[in-house]
Write a structure and sequence with these properties.
CATH topology of the largest domain: Rossmann fold
Strand content: 25-35%
CATH class of the largest domain: Alpha Beta
Number of domains: 5
Number of helices: 15
Radius of gyration: 42 Å
CATH architecture of the largest domain: 3-Layer(aba) Sandwich
Distance between the termini: 44 Å
Number of strands: 33
Largest sheet: 8 strands, mixed
Structural class: alpha/beta
Shape: elongated
Strand order of the largest sheet: 17-16-18-19-25-24-23-21
């Protein structure tokens, strides 16, 4: 056995040389002078025999020398850093715990969810310094370098979300937090294999990464995986992840359909969407209840009543509006009085002499009541529109080019073609959604006192846009915008998305949340004073709760599933330093007893 097998710094033994001058001083010091006292001669029984080796006798009888040499010996060995070999885990003082809070961790197994078992295991991994990262929002640090008490309190306060897995981001976040000798513990069901790259990166940094899997109770799951809207109906898709055929009933409002699903089969049902929204239920349920429901938000009054005021019946516009589901179109020719309640009024090709003051005033009142008004371009725009016309009209021009298009819900994905002729002008108020090359607004909007106003710059009989297949799409969006009726796809989201509500309080499944943006972490309805949206788990991979055990996987995931067991030296320097201190104190006590102190 060489010194390096027991000492990390053998050079520290050079401190033993300090014992040499101590011994030499004891050898060269003069012998004490003996004096004969007659008074005590009678106590001497005989003449003391002289030792054959007087200097060895001197050393052996000097307890003080022995203590000093032992102090030097202990301190020298301490400087050489003796050690014992132990498991690396026993030496870790900093731990970063990654807890999977994704939806699949709510899978029930024998009365406990995967998440509950993972949190219980996480408590056993707490060390002197502990950081905690969850998969929420792609990797959220909920505790950074906290005490054991803080770590246990943080773990007790965790709860699962209804969002898809984001384990890779959480492990990457943990890697960036971990110190040089920290240990990362990942507690998850390890669905998929996207997390493998993050684990490889962490281990490449020399960090110990321990993977603990919780995968029980996931066999035979059946759940919703998709939701598509068409008009006022919704098509729901259901997948059977089990190995046997099942029967499921899908119920939404008062309507229900039955599905027969074979192993790994997908079935769909189409049902009408109730006004105001409701919850689609899959029955019977199973061990993973999150994907057994889909929440669907819808306007309370889904129909949009549109009045078109025109003296030249615009058949392209009327046809485009007529094919939009739940849009009721009424056409009136000025001069006329407007009777009835409408959500939207469109002024198209109106003769200036026929437009009555009351026709315009009705539009202003509608905007004040929260409705919408649109003015469509024509050769000569009536001055009577005044504030309902968002541009200051100029001359008629040709050879336009489309410049900037804002990416809003009204214009996104639509290819606006250059108009053959247009009315040049500048904005009076509002903002341009589509702008021509010379700065003239082609589409402009303004939210005003709770209502909405729009300017449509195409002169209909001299525009090719009306032949575009996206023309009805634009007008569907336009009337829904003007009536403040969001379309069903805009009201219904997947969990994990973020929705803008504005600066208001939103009531969600987990309580009140303040805007302006709200992350949809739990499935259910999110309501403000003026708006309601829904969030549902619709993720095929997250619903596949029958995950394969880590020790049975092949490829990259299989190679990473090993639990690293590395041995490291544990220095014993502090124990030797303590021993040296004890010996030094013993020396002081001996000197005091002998009377030298």
């Amino acid at each position: 056995m060489v010194l390096s097998d027991v000492l990390l710094a053998p050079l520290g033994l050079a401190a033993l040389l300090l014992a040499v001058p101590i011994v030499v001083l004891y050898l060269i010091r003069p012998d004490p002078q003996e004096l004969t006292l007659p008074t005590f001669q009678f106590l001497v029984a005989g003449e003391r025999q002289q030792s054959a080796t007087p200097f060895l006798e001197r050393i052996s009888r000097s307890l003080l020398l022995l203590l000093q040499v032992l102090v030097v010996l202990v301190l020298a060995v301490g400087l050489a850093t003796p050690y014992v070999t132990v498991s690396e885990r026993a030496t870790v003082e900093e731990t970063v715990i990654v807890v999977d809070t994704s939806a699949s961790m709510q899978t029930d197994a024998d009365g406990q969810t995967r998440f509950q078992r993972a949190v219980a295991a996480a408590r056993e991994e707490v060390t002197g310094t502990t950081s905690i990262v969850t998969t929420t929002n792609g990797g959220e640090v909920v505790l950074q370098r906290g005490t054991p008490t803080a770590a246990e309190g943080t773990l007790d306060g965790l709860s699962p979300t209804d969002t898809p897995e984001a384990l890779s981001g959480a492990i990457s976040q943990a890697t960036s937090l971990a110190g040089e000798n920290a240990r990362i513990v990942v507690l998850s069901d390890f669905a998929g294999d996207e997390w493998t790259t993050a684990v490889t990166t962490a281990r490449g940094r020399g960090l110990s990464v321990d993977l603990q899997q919780f995968d029980g109770g996931g066999d035979g799951n059946v759940g919703f995986i998709d939701r598509r809207f068409s008009g006022s109906a919704v098509t729901l898709s259901v997948k059977n992840y089990g190995d046997s055929s099942v029967t499921r009933t899908v119920q939404l409002g008062n309507a229900q359909r039955e599905l027969q699903l074979g192993p790994d089969d997908v079935g769909s049902v189409t049902l009408p969407v109730p006004a105001g929204g409701s919850e689609a239920r899959l029955s019977p349920g199973d061990s993973f209840g999150t994907d057994d429901s889909v929440y669907i938000a819808a306007p309370t009054d889904a129909a949009v009543d549109v009045l078109v005021l025109t003296n030249d019946r615009n058949r392209y516009l009327i046809t485009a509006l007529s094919v939009v589901d739940r849009v009721n179109v009424t056409v009136r020719q000025p001069p006329t009085t407007i009777q009835g309640d409408y959500d939207v009024i469109l002024y198209s090709n109106v003769d200036r002499s026929s437009l009555l003051p009351g026709n315009v005033e009705t539009g202003r009142e509608l905007v004040e009541d929260g409705g919408g008004v649109a003015v469509l371009a024509q050769d000569t725009l009536p001055q009577r529109y005044r504030d309902l016309l968002l541009i200051e009209p100029g001359e008629t021009r040709t050879s336009a080019t489309v410049g900037q298009t804002a990416q809003t819900q009204l214009t996104r994905g639509i290819d606006f073609q250059p108009p053959d002729e247009y009315i040049s002008g500048s904005l009076r108020s509002g903002s341009a959604q589509v702008q021509l090359g010379d700065g003239t607004p082609l589409i402009a909007t303004e939210d005003r006192n709770g209502g909405r106003v729009m300017y449509y710059g195409y002169i209909e009989d001299r525009s090719s846009f009306k032949f575009n297949y996206q023309y009805p799409v634009f007008w569907k969006r336009a009337v829904y915008y003007l009536a403040d009726r969001e379309q069903l796809p805009a009201l219904n989201h997947a969990t994990g998305e973020t929705v803008r509500f504005g600066n208001t309080t939103v009531e969600g499944p987990s309580g009140s949340v303040s805007g302006p943006t709200v992350p949809l972490q739990r499935a259910g309805f999110y309501r403000s004073e003026t708006r309601q949206v829904s969030a549902s788990l619709l993720d095929e991979s997250e619903s596949n709760t029958a995950v394969e055990a880590l020790n049975q996987r092949s490829g990259t995931a299989g190679n990473l599933t090993r639990t690293e067991r590395r041995s490291v030296p544990r220095p014993l320097t502090e124990y030797f330093a303590l021993g040296g201190l004890v010996l030094a104190l013993a020396e002081v006590g001996y000197l005091r007893r002998r009377g030298d102190l």
